[in-house]
């Protein structure tokens, strides 16, 4: 390890020269000598993280950022969300499948992650784009931090990026296709070509988020969040799962409904055989024109 030594000599006159008039007699200068050793090995780890990720948009703009969560390369449609909180619900909302969600609220991750606020059994979005990643969590329900949660679910995230500037582009030009990567071996031109070659239009994303078989939903909203009285009469509701959120089902159950959740390809004739009191068609991800079976069934 290379070490350099610097010696300093400091006299009392240097310190007091500006505080005495020229008519004041000076006493003999006292000199103190000390040595400072500075290491130049370069082996220590920086207390901050360098930019190690890029977001390349189809308009040609390149945004350097810092990564958290999973690593790799992912392509998706970039959209923004103006919610002040609720990032965990957004992460698990099936409607965001195939998309990078940019949060306009600059500070994300401060409440951590719990297992009560999830809207589905997994994360469906392609990536998360934020301005500032909280270095600590502060919530009584927190079980883990956001970075660990995304890494476990193989979801990419970036921070320390100018989300205001990207949002203005999205507001002006509409949703843009982007490529998110932590791979330094890929060139900007290669990533730009990937973004221009991919399109969410015409892609069936609903079949990947819908349930596979019919099932009954029974979970209700927890009592501390309840704000209505459960009616005495029970209504049978068939819910078509095109990417339905759990909280929709919880609220229906809390109102006393018997709920049967069916896949996106479930025939209408089978639904009529159940003789339900009502049918609900959920929202979902992607291009509606890519799922004609949702109408034809």
Give an account of the 3D structure:
With 297 residues, the chain is of the alpha/beta class. It folds into two domains: 53-200, 3-Layer(bba) Sandwich (Glucose Oxidase, domain 1), CATH 3.50.30.20; 208-294, Rossmann fold. It contains eight helices and 15 strands. The strands form four sheets. It has a seven-stranded mixed beta barrel. A hairpin with a 4-residue loop joins β3 (53-57) and β4. The N and C termini lie far apart (73 Å). The model is unreliable at 8-12 (pLDDT under 50).
List the SSEs and their pairings:
Layout: E1 3-11, H1 12-16, E2 31-39, E3 53-57, E4 62-69, E5 73-81, H2 87-91, E6 99-103, E7 107-108, E8 127-129, E9 132-133, H3 146-152, E10 156-159, H4 163-173, E11 176-181, H5 188-197, E12 215-217, E13 236-240, H6 246-254, E14 258-262, H7 268-273, E15 278-281, H8 293-296
Task: Give the tags.
Rossmann fold, 297 residues, alpha/beta, four-stranded mixed β-sheet, seven-stranded mixed beta barrel
Brief summary:
By secondary structure, the protein is an alpha/beta fold.
Strand content: 25-35%
Write out the CATH superfamily name of the largest domain: Carbamoyl-phosphate synthase small subunit, N-terminal domain
Mean pLDDT across every amino acid position: 87
Secondary-structure element string: EHEEEEHEEEEHEHEHEEHEHEH
Keywords: Amino-acid biosynthesis, Arginine biosynthesis, ATP-binding, Glutamine amidotransferase, Ligase, Nucleotide-binding, Pyrimidine biosynthesis
EC number: 6.3.5.5
Pathway: Pyrimidine metabolism; UMP biosynthesis via de novo pathway; (S)-dihydroorotate from bicarbonate: step 1/3; Amino-acid biosynthesis; L-arginine biosynthesis; carbamoyl phosphate from bicarbonate: step 1/1
Domain Carbamoyl-phosphate synthase small subunit N-terminal: 51-181
